[in-house]
Amino acid sequence: MKEEIDKSANRLPADESREHLMVQIARMTYQQDKTLTEIAAETGLNRWQVSRLLQEARDLGVVRIEIVPRTLRHPDLETRLAETFGLRDALVVPGPIDQGIDGVAQAAGQYLAQIKPRPQVIGVSWGRTMGAVAHWLPPDWADGVAVVQINGTVAPVPGIAHHNDVAETFARKGKGRMIPLPVPAIVGERLTREVLEKDRIVADVLRIARSAQVLAFSLGVAGEHSVLMRSGNIQKSEMAGLLRAGAVGDVLGHFINRRGEIVDPELDARTIGLSVADLRQRDRVIGIAAGQDKHEVTLGALKAGLVNILVTDEATATYALEHAHDR
């Protein structure tokens, strides 16, 4: 008690070192989740001084606390989605059907930045939507995070910029490191996949991916706009076969129907990355989808339990609820 009452002891500096101390304490509080007692012990200040510096940091704008009210979201749809599909959480961005991916990507970036405790390892996919999420992810959203790629990569596709830079951007903004998965998303033979996954480097990446506390990925479409087909990972004839079998899109390269079932086991056996079984075993599996072309694949992913957190737009959420009991 004497230490806290004696406010004149250990007087705070009044120059640049004071601002440096203010920033240091703010980071310890809001980025490292340390208590006033822990901060006081590390800085040599008392709790009253730590509290005073935090308040001053807020007053001067060194710390800005952003509150995102749920009125910018659609709480009724979120609750119905969570109850209908057994989700851990849902985030629905209201707006017109043609609003594009930016609103959903921004919401996903904010959501990821607010996860507590902050993940030490996060697994991400590539793609245009995930590139937008990486763009909207705030700087310093994490501190020393390991960002691992959870599915094989594809060749650059004309007209789609930076779709392979997602993990690097996540890591750079989170002051961490990227762990790439340096293999194709889909290979020509099942034996090739088996050999590659036994390689020490690839096996280590997949082991880290399976240990990630958080997984975040976008859902892919089937048909002519599929990046996996446009990049050459699967052939046009294979895509035609997938569509005949009822494919509505892919989850990390695993093509599913409206019920979330794998439509082509032979092709699926050639797909490198986390499996659908891996997805069902993680605590936070965040699926991100926006736009009419993602309605059916989102429905399938929800029905099969391949995601337990969904970030989407109002139209996609409404579609999933309207067709939740379709066979």
Automatic annotation (TrEMBL):
Sugar-binding domain: residues covered: 76-321
Keywords: DNA-binding, Transcription, Transcription regulation
Pfam assignment, any one: Sugar-bind
Similarity field: Belongs to the SorC transcriptional regulatory family.
Protein name stated in the entry: Sugar-binding transcriptional regulator
